[in-house]
Amino acid sequence: MDKLRIGIVGIGKISGIYLQNLTGMFGKRVILSAVTDLIPERAEKAAEEYKTRYIKGIDELINDPSVDIILNITQPQKHFQVAMTAVKAGKHVYDEKPLCVTREEAQELLKTAAASKVRVGGAPDTFLGAGIQTCRKLIDDGWIGKPIAATAFMMNHGHEHWHPDPEFYYKAGAGPMFDMGPYYLTALVNLLGPITRVSGSAQQGFKTRTITSEPQNGKIINVDVPTHIAGVLDFANGAVGTIITSFDVWASSMPFIEIYGTEGTLQVPDPNYFGGPVKVRRFQAEEWSEVPLLKGFPENSRGLGITDMAEAIVEGRPHRASGELAYHVLEVMHGIHDASASGIYYQLKSTCVQPEIMK
Question: Where are the beta strands (DSSP E) in 255-349?
């Protein structure tokens, strides 16, 4: 079979761009076979709009013979249950971030998938876009010399003022590190390779949050996770990274990501997006120079990761947004929290292959 068939579990806020792209820009490379959701009306509406099938029930969709890959875009607490059901049914699965809530769940998922001879992939796939892929090429080509350090900053004041259902962002499996950290850490691993140890400090700025968005305006929610996390990352290649993720900051002018090399500095665009400006300032230069994007997919190309995975299965090659990469990032995030709690470095037990650059 040349094109694999995708079934989507979960029709929420993020599903719209997946539906649009899997039937649009990637429609000649994969097939959107079916959708389902715990709220039938949402899935029925999506099926009608994007001319695909609505299947009532998650198990029914997973076991449908015309579905090859499950796109799991449920809330984080459901990732493991849905993904395990899929791999036990002999289906490939691609999870939204994070891969699972706990390391133990993710380990069991990858082990079961290997035994079932199916693949696991994981978001984010923004690192496959034109912006970060251009940065990868510049680093690989030696524009800033040998990378020696990196910084990454994701700081805002959370989701309760704009998201229609923000409570889960303050529960296990979320918070600023588990919600947005995957974008930044996946980009850093793509650019610099795997991480060997981490340290960090984490705190909770507010015990409760008041929702001011509709339809839950006025509801007070309890915060169960740290909301300001600072981590230090030691990369296998010798570089040292710093990352801060926060839902406690009203405003910031810090860069998204910068890579510092022996011969210059590279400004990386927002890893939550696929494009964005790429800037370099080499040694002795007096100003920054913006570099034209050298790779494809500058627009919102969510779905690129699962499309690459589908094609990799057919072609018999590794896929870039792999389960191993997603697990490595998950362990890094937990490791930073563990280091904060223990006061000592956390030594990574996992590693991963630095993803191949996009052609």
Answer: 257-261, 264-268, 278-282, 289-291, 346-347
